[in-house]
Amino acid sequence: MKNHEIAVIFEHIADILELKGENIFKISAYRKASRILKDLASDIEEIDKQGKLKEIAGIGSGMTEKIEEFIKTGKIERYEEIKKEVPDGLVGLLSVPGLGPKGVSKINRELGIKNIDDLKKAISDGKLRELEGFGEKKEENILRGVEVFESSKGRINLGLAYPLVENILGYLFKIKEIKKAVPAGSLRRMQETIGDIDILVTGSNGPEIIEHFKKYPGVKEVLASGETKGSIRVEDGIQVDLRFVPEESFGSALQYFTGSKNHNIKLRDMAKKAGFKINEYGIFRDDVKLGGKKEEEIYKVLGLPFIPPEMREDRGEIEIAVKGRMPELLEHKNIRGDFHVHSRYSDGSNSLREIAETGRKMGYEYIAITDHSQSLHIAHGLKPEKLEEQIEEINTINKEITGIKLLKGSEVNIKSDGTLDLQDNLLKKLDIVIASIHSGFKEDEDMLTGRVLDAMDNPYVSIFAHPTGRLIGERDAYHINIEKVIKKAKEKNIALEINAYYTRLDLNDINSRRAKEAGVKLAIGTDAHNTEQLWMMKFGVSVARRGWLEKKDVLNTFNLKDLKNWLK
């Protein structure tokens, strides 16, 4: 799909305009369009063929023209013009956490820094701290940002890899020779970032399948081609490997290539002690093959129940499987609603009615409308009178529409003193109050944790959102004592959020499991800013599954009546 290619160009245009000090509203328009395109579940070319580009909520006529230009010509002239004005390496520095556009411009102007290597040398030579407005502390933060930036290179965010693979699978199944095609590796385990993408296939004609794979429309380069394996490079340099395996070994190959490495090592050690041998071709005793056509056979021969891919990280899953104590993991079909959705009232793209209609089509019982509160000016946070207006509109919609209810809510900012951004007399009119932090990320642990704990003392708080504040590959988690937050959540009966938006996935799997073990409920919210982003609920479910969460642990599985009782 061209969605991601155009989104990246829009993001680069915004970066360049920001470096040049251009109008903030123009920059925001490009960033918003980029975000919408990345999250779009439909193929932008198909939308264009249907003449429906102008119907995409949140994208104006100027952006629509540029999208049409790219679809027709493969480039955007405006981008070709302005990218000549700034070195590529300089734009790349904007991806370093702790360095904003003003900082990048300053270090370029005063120190001649043009790329990441120049920046590292300036830090090593102690030149950065000597600049006015920087200093030793800021230099330390930027160095940490460089480490985050470099550690994320070569990894693909799950939110980008997943739709790419879905598109490739759709393409593969266009030929009758393919019987099965399943992604393996870290993508199948739904890790938050992915290395190279592996896909296993079986069918009637391996060479023909490989030839078909090589002709995938998004291919930029064919890296390898044989009778049983093909490798291509697609957009952003992402490598995709396709392996053809015989049907009688498909299950064992899938288990082998799914990993994780540590899970497989422990499983093979267990097999060896029991007199078995496991490899990608099957499970054997001596030379007798005992299974391998289906993945479940590998575990069954060892006397184990099937272990879901998301659990295969060698975190005790084999041990509890041996004891017959496997959790019944949350499934997407258990989800009855979404707790974190933004509308046109703040920085979202859709009306309340559009959100309700989309939720109903998804089979949801409820969606919580949680626009930002007044102090978050950049997100057009709602002043009390505007929130009152929204409450009235939600009440009207709920009377008129059947099959779904909109829950009255707000994502309320936690202020620096630990109080909330709205008064209690307004909070008590809401069904859902999400407390969250959007400033003061650099405070020390005691101060920031104290702010959160104070906010959680407010009797109207239902959920604490994106609890560690991290942005994958962009910003580290802020310094917060998550153990204290979990303890407070249990004490006050507050749910902790699993934010399903692909750059957050926060709480992560490890902290979600900690919360479960403490008896704290988790609430999954997509943080959707347009209806196209509601599909990301599946990422929140995957985090929950990686954290061993069951249906009873997750608030989204409650029916409306039970949910309202819990909220009371």
Question: Quick summary of this structure?
Answer:
It is built from 24 helices and 17 strands.
Task: Tell me what the structure shows.
It is a single chain. The chain is α/β, with parallel strands linked by helices and 568 residues long. The chain folds into 5 domains: 84 residues, Orthogonal Bundle (DNA polymerase, domain 1), CATH 1.10.150.110; 64 residues, 5' to 3' exonuclease, C-terminal subdomain (DNA polymerase, domain 1, Orthogonal Bundle), CATH 1.10.150.20; 89 residues, Beta Polymerase, domain 2, CATH 3.30.460.10; 74 residues, DNA polymerase, thumb domain (Beta Polymerase, domain 3), CATH 3.30.210.10; 236 residues, TIM Barrel. The strands form 4 sheets. It has a 7-stranded parallel β-sheet. β12, α18 and β13 form a beta-alpha-beta unit. α13 packs across α15, α20 packs parallel to α21 and α22 packs across α23. The chain is globular, with a radius of gyration of 25 Å.
Give the name of the CATH superfamily of the largest domain. Answer: Metal-dependent hydrolases
CATH architecture of the largest domain: Alpha-Beta Barrel
Contiguous helical run count? 24
Q: Kindly provide the name of the CATH class of the largest domain.
A: Alpha Beta
Helix content: 40-55%
Which oligomerization state do the chains in this entry correspond to?
single chain
Total E-strand runs = 17
Content-based structural category:
alpha/beta
Strand content: 5-15%
Give the uncertain stretches in residue-range form. Answer: none
Major sheet: size, sense and barrel closure? 7 strands, parallel
**Residue-averaged pLDDT:** 92
CATH topology assignment of the largest domain? TIM Barrel
Whole-number count of domains: 5
User: Which strand order spans the largest sheet, edge to edge or round the barrel?
Assistant: 11-12-13-14-15-16-17
